[in-house]
Amino acid sequence: MTQRSPSGPFFWSCLVAGAGIAGYGLAGAWGDRADTRPADLVVWLAGSGVAHDALVAPALIVAALATRWLPVAARLPVRLGLALSALLTLLFWPVVRGWGRSPSVPSALPLDYGRNLLLTLAVVWLAVGAAVVARRRRGRAPR
Amino acid sequence: MRPPRALEEARDDALRRPVHDARTAAILGIALGVCFLVCFLTGLYSHLQQHPVGWLPIPPRPASLYRVTQGLHVATGFATVPLLLAKLWSVYPRLFRWPPVTGVAHALERLMLVPLVCGAVFLLFSGVANVSRWYPWGFYFPAAHYWVAWITVGALVAHVGAKAAIARAALTRPGHPVAAAAPGTLGRRGFLGAVAVAAGVVTVTTAGQTVAPLRPLTLFAQRRPDIGSQGVPVNRSAVQAGVVDAAGDPSFRLRVTGAVNRPVELTAGELDRMARREAELPIACVEGWSASARWRGVPVADLLAAAGLEIDDGVTVRVESLQASGRYRASELNHLQVRDLDTMLAVALNGERLDLDHGFPCRLIAPNRAGVLQTKWVHELVVSRA
C-alpha cells in the first residue's frame, strides 16, 4: 500500500500550531488537576481510543463476516439496519437504563426511553424488511 | 515483525473498496472538522459565560443567543457520533500500515493521531453521558471536557496540516478510479447516505428538547421543554440544593449590600409587590435543552437604584443564593447585564408564584445567560465597583 510521508511548510506550521494548542490543553488539564483528576482522565481517554480500535471496529468486521451468508438482496439492508440499531442502542443506553434519574428531579429524563427505543428499532427493521422485499421484486442483483 | 499475511491481505483488500478510499475519508473528514469547530466555538462561548473575563463582557442581547449556541452544541455533538464512527471506519485499515512509520515527519503525524482519536471519542462519549446525567468517572465533567477539547483541536490542526494535500487531491482528481463496490457492500454514495440518515435519525429524535416543531418526535431527549413544575424543566431541585427550610422561612429578607449608598432590605411580600416587569425569556441549559417562559419580577437595575446607585461601567453584582455550598451558589452580572431591564429577580413564572424548585422566593432570570448562572433562591445582591 502507498505511504506518503507528510512534508512542506504547511505541514510543519500546522504541526507546531497544533502541538501548541494541544500543549495548552495539557497544561490547563494539569493546572486544573483538582477537577480533572489526571490519573482518572488518562484512563478514560486511553480507554476511549482502545474501546473504538479494539472493540467497535472489530465488532463491525465480525458483523460483516457473519452476514455474508445472507442472500444478496437482503445483505445490504440488514447490515445497515444492524449498524443503525447498534448506534441508537449505544447512544441512548444511558437514558434507557435511566442511570441519571433522581427522584427529586422528576423533570429530568421524563420519558419511557426503553419503549421509545423499541419503537424506533421496529421502524428501522420495518424499513429493512421493505427494502429487502423491494430488492427481491426488482428481480436483479443490486449493485 | 510483520503483521500476519492474512491481516495484510484483508487490509489491502479493504483499501480497494470505495468506503475506505481517500476521497471518502476526505469528505467525512471535512464534515467532521466543521462539526468539531461548531462544538468547539459554542463550547468556548459557554466556558466564557461561566468563567467571565474582564476584557470580554458577555452582552445580554440577543436574548436567545445562549439557547441557540448550546442547542447547536449538543445537537451537533450527537450528530457527530455516527460521523466520527464512519470516519474512523473509513480509515481503520490504515491503522495496520507496514512499516508503521517511514520517517520523523510521518512518526510525528501518527503520534498526533493518538490524542486526536482518543480525544474525539472521549469528547463524544463524555458529552452524551453528561446530558444523560450519568457520571461513571471520578473527574469533574466540565473541566475534563473543556481541556480535552483543546487537546483534541490541537491534534486536529496538526492532522489538517498532514492531510490537506491528500484530501485536496482526492477531491479534485476527476474520475478518480475506484473499484466498484462488491454485491452486498456499499459504494461511496450509499455509505455517505447511510451516515446522513443515521445522523438525521439521531438529531430528529433529540432536537425536540429545544426545537419546538420537533417536540412530537422527541423520543430520546433527556428533557422535554414542557415537562417540569410550572411547565418548565428543573436541573436542581430545592431538596438537592438543601434550601427547603431557608427558602420557606418567614424571616427571609432580600438584601442589596456592598458598594451601595444605602443598603436595601425587602421581605418576600415587598418584593412581590414591586415585581411589575414581565418578560418572555428562555431558560437554556448547557446540556442542550431550553424552554421559553413568561417571568414577572423586579429589574436588578431598579434594586440598585433603590440602593442609591448609578450603574456605570465599573459595576458588577454578585448574586448569592441561600444554598450553603455548590459550584453554582453564586453568579456574577456585568455592567451590560445589570443595565438591561429584563435582568431581574423573578417572583412569578407563567402567571403563577414561583415554585420552590424554580427558586422561590426569588431567582435571577436574565437574557442570554447560561441556565446554571440564573441563580435560584437569591437572598443577597453584593455590588462591587472597579
From TrEMBL, chain A:
What's in the keyword line of the UniProt record? Membrane, Transmembrane, Transmembrane helix
Q: Does the keyword Transmembrane apply?
A: yes
Segments crossing the lipid bilayer: 9-30, 42-66, 78-96, 116-134
Name the chain's protein: DUF3995 domain-containing protein
UniProtKB/TrEMBL annotation, chain B:
InterPro entries attached to this UniProt entry: Di-haem_cyt_TM, Mopterin_OxRdtase_euk, OxRdtase_Mopterin-bd_dom, OxRdtase_Mopterin-bd_sf
* Keywords of this entry: Membrane, Transmembrane, Transmembrane helix
Q: Which organism is it from?
A: Jiangella mangrovi
Could you identify this protein by its name?
DMSO/TMAO reductase YedYZ molybdopterin-dependent catalytic subunit
Domain (Oxidoreductase molybdopterin-binding) spans 250-385
User: What GO terms in the biological process aspect are recorded for it?
Assistant: respiratory electron transport chain
Return the GO cellular component terms, semicolon-separated.
Answer: membrane
Q: Which GO terms describe its molecular function?
A: oxidoreductase activity
Q: Which residues cross the membrane?
A: 25-48, 68-90, 111-132, 144-166
Q: Which domain of life is it from?
A: Bacteria
Say yes or no: keyword Transport present: no
